[in-house]
Amino acid sequence: MKATAHTNIALIKYWGKKNTELNLPTTSSLSLTLDKFYTTTSVEPANHDRFILNDQVVDATRVHRFLDILRQQLGDFTPLQVISENHVPTSAGLASSASAFAALTGAVTHELGMDLPKEELSRLARRGSGSASRSFFGNFAMWHKGIDDASSFAESLNAPELPIALVVAEVCDAPKKITSTEGMKRAITSPNYDRWLSKSANQFIDMQHAILDQDIDKIGALAEDNALGMHALNLTATRSPFTYFTDKTQLILSLIQDMRHQGILAYATIDAGPNVKIITTTQEAPKIVTILNHAIPSLKLEIAQSGPGISYD
């Protein structure tokens, strides 16, 4: 059985865990699924669990551990060979684990003959990667933080498709030095963390209204404020402060401000990594690409739009 799931970019971020075993987040989050970045995964019976990523056999402890979690949740099943093609730069802040664990969850459950609701699939995938809970849904999705395993799940916002686009500026595709898990552990030591949680809860509600009102300018402004607030936590952590930003990240942020001053709709959102996603409209996106290409000729740029939910072959 083969499943394809697309990555998603959180417009309202998840950054911190209140239960590491269950992957329960400290914040609810809201994302846009992207068409350009995805993972296709197939599973088949084998003599032992085996993981092949992009044609290379990989000793992935995280995948093996997740398969054992699925066995606990779904009932024991025979060893599987997992073959995965990842069309997302890994560990560079483009949510490669989201599409990867969503595709794996879908492939395993369908191999077992289970046709589970997407909300249930989101609970299962959350144990492998929190962001994966949102990748089962196309367009906009919400992940409710919940208070336990049953109440922490994702669902579609059921919003209309908007002429929204993301210009993805790939600053670096190398694995990041500080993993998301480690970054969250440090961030929660910031004296500003509780204030960010409270603000994020309000932004989660405001973002839903902005999307339903089809106000892309408001969507961008909320997303940028939420993202920059998240990254400020990393800098103010009392335990080993850090940043994912590079000089090129900072330059792109400055260019985005310049574009706004010129009347171009452009807002930044950045996950755990140096890469910048610029929220704009499908009409303005080519103009932004031209400006960035002129300012930073070596920059790799792609335009992504709203993507679909999980699919099966």
Automatic annotation (TrEMBL):
Upper lineage is: Bacteria, Bacillati, Bacillota, Bacilli, Lactobacillales
UniProt-recorded name of the protein: diphosphomevalonate decarboxylase
Query: Matching InterPro entries, A to Z?
Result: GHMP_kinase_C_sf, Mev_decarb, Mev_diP_decarb, MVD-like_N, Mvd1_C, Ribosomal_Su5_D2-typ_SF, Ribsml_uS5_D2-typ_fold_subgr
List each copy of the Mvd1 C-terminal domain by range: 168-298
* PANTHER family assigned: DIPHOSPHOMEVALONATE DECARBOXYLASE
User: Which Gene Ontology MF annotations are present?
Assistant: ATP binding; diphosphomevalonate decarboxylase activity
**Residue ranges annotated for the Diphosphomevalonate decarboxylase-like N-terminal domain, each copy included:** 5-154
Any single GO CC term annotated in Swiss-Prot or TrEMBL for this entry: cytosol
Tell whether Coiled coil is among the UniProt keywords.
Answer: no
Q: Does the keyword Lipid metabolism apply?
A: yes
Q: Which organism is it from?
A: Leuconostoc mesenteroides subsp. mesenteroides (strain ATCC 8293 / DSM 20343 / BCRC 11652 / CCM 1803 / JCM 6124 / NCDO 523 / NBRC 100496 / NCIMB 8023 / NCTC 12954 / NRRL B-1118 / 37Y)
Q: Which UniProt keywords apply?
A: ATP-binding, Lipid biosynthesis, Lipid metabolism, Lyase, Nucleotide-binding
Entry EC no(s):
4.1.1.33
UniProt superkingdom: Bacteria
